[in-house]
Amino acid sequence: MVSQPTFNAAELKARFNPEGSPLRRQQMVMLEMVRELDRICKKHDIPYFLYGGTLLGAFRHDGFIPWDDDLDVAMMRKDYKRLLEVLPDELPEHIALQTNDTDKNYFLFITKLRDRRSFLDEGNFDKVFKERGIFIDIFPLDRLLPWTQRLRLQSLAYNFFRKGNGDESSMKKIRALTWFNRHVSFPILRCISHLSGTKSLMCDYGIQFHNVYDLRDVFPLKTHVFEGVQLPVPDNSHHMLQTMFGDYMRLPDDLDHVYHHVERLEFY
Q: What mean pLDDT is predicted for residues 136-153?
């Protein structure tokens, strides 16, 4: 059962992200980047869709969740691989592509697009990354056996980082682990999952979100308004949002402590 929205949108905007506020400026930079991504994906016929809290924001707020400071999109892994091939030639100079290949200390398995005209400090392991501007996340999805995703093989990287606080010794271990998972363990696990014929659609390996989706909920894609722009969303977004958030149209009970993870933000 999904509640009907009862909040006052103008009051939420005035409280969390009024025009000209640092958060609203950050959101507008992310919107610019997703519009650029949308242009590239349309040009190369690469399907993608709004995902996670961004998908929630589209349906509950017609844009960003007022206190949200990230933007998520997702796509099938085969489309993700095609996107990574075309992005280097398509992105404008002020947007950086951040992957394991472009940033030697980047050990996440989510691709980021980074704005080079800003600086963002999350007070976390991002301090070792080459690119640290405002970002949007691109999640690869695949058909995976749920038990294989829960092996959490990349989680050792976070343990190494915490123990060494990102010093060169810990980063050598993290880089070696990331290489092994990327080129050996994750391909083997994908092969096992594909041979099983599983229909469970999940985030690809190395990503800590383990929700299980139905491929039939995703395609064919539709569009929905997001900050005045029509962007692609899953066919049955309602079911996907219920899977992720339950009663997704209801606001959090405690708006005084909603999540906001940026410690420092600068615009150049």
A: 94
